[in-house]
User: Fold this.
Amino acid sequence: MKSLMKILLLGILVVFLLGSVAIAADPVTIRFWGGWTGPDKFGMEKIVNNFMAENPDIKVEFFTAPWTEVFTKFSTTYGTNASPDLLAMHVSDISQFATRGMLMNVEDIAVANNIKADDFPLNVWEGQFYNGEQYGIPLDYHPMAVYKNADMYTAAGIDPNITWNTMDSFIDSMQKTTKDDVFGLAIGVNHSHTMRYWYGWLFQQEGGAFLNEEQNQAVFNSDQGVKALQFMHDLSYKYQVVPPHESDIDKDFLSGKVANLMEGPWWVPGVKEQKDLNIVVAPFPQVFEKPAVWAGSHTLTLPKRADQAKIEATIKLLSYIVTHSVDWGNSGQIPASLSVIQSEAYKNLPDYKYYKVFIEQANNIHFEPLVVQTASFGADNTMSPVLNAILAVMLDEADPKEALDLAVSEINAIF
Assistant:
């Protein structure tokens, strides 16, 4: 009888211990949200899956949707158990959430995890701050560059590897690649990129600025802003190297209707699949005094949470993503980490020859203003007074100076 009792007690103890082990082994579940819907979505999925394979004690629920949907969902779930633990966004989005107290200051987290400023381009690192506090860890950056139809350059007697540091040299290439029913350059009358081109050319001029030093008044109706916009108008109506009233810049390039397209690195994975299209990539054209180019940047932020276990798991994921972003780079984004882009693994990527051009522009990038009001006038807002002013000029429906004056007055009304 005593032996039977011992066996029963031993059995109960084993079951208890096994149950305890099972409970202890349950993974921590964290939510990671981002707005990627193209090839970059699959690049991030690969990184997340690799992380979970190496960290079986952490389960990551990865959610992607268009950025507007992601941010709407974040706003409605904030403060509940359904909100994200790790949230990606653009640097220009940080201010609208930081000013509402929805993001953690990550400066101490960066230090504790050996994430240092000197491992990132200075402009990209500085873009993670709002009102002197750090709210983001850089994931990538993506400036504009010129995709060239190399065969059209050869046919025009131009070296396909040409780059530009004067207005005359750029116009010359665009004119020589304009022939018959083919135009030299794509600039859309309905595309947010048109504002991004102007933004780069604005900052290529000494004294060019979008806002004043206090970041509370628009000043882009300056001589520099007008010159940049007049130059774009002239490309279409004076030099006639841009299709009139162009509505689909990407399609026009892929179909051979234009010889040059200004796009970001996210375009590489798709365009390389066009087997009959021989492309070369060049830096964004310098047509004024100094190199400058519009750029965006994805950043990783931590919404405020009270669950310490989830915070620790989230920080582990964040650090992993930043240091294992070679696959991210392979999906059409430029990893922000210098350690990653200088690694042999990254340099051995099949498309590194294209990405290298974007990397070389890192010191010349300019983000849209890192202020709350950018949500109202940034290039991604179809109601932006700036975008609409620029498009009106490209439609030949407005004078550059008058259009920019109107846009400045509308923007200053919201500060």
Remarks:
- Residues 117 and 126 are 9 Å apart (CA to CA).
- Residues 4-18 have pLDDT under 50 and may be disordered.
- The chain is about 45% helix and 15% strand.
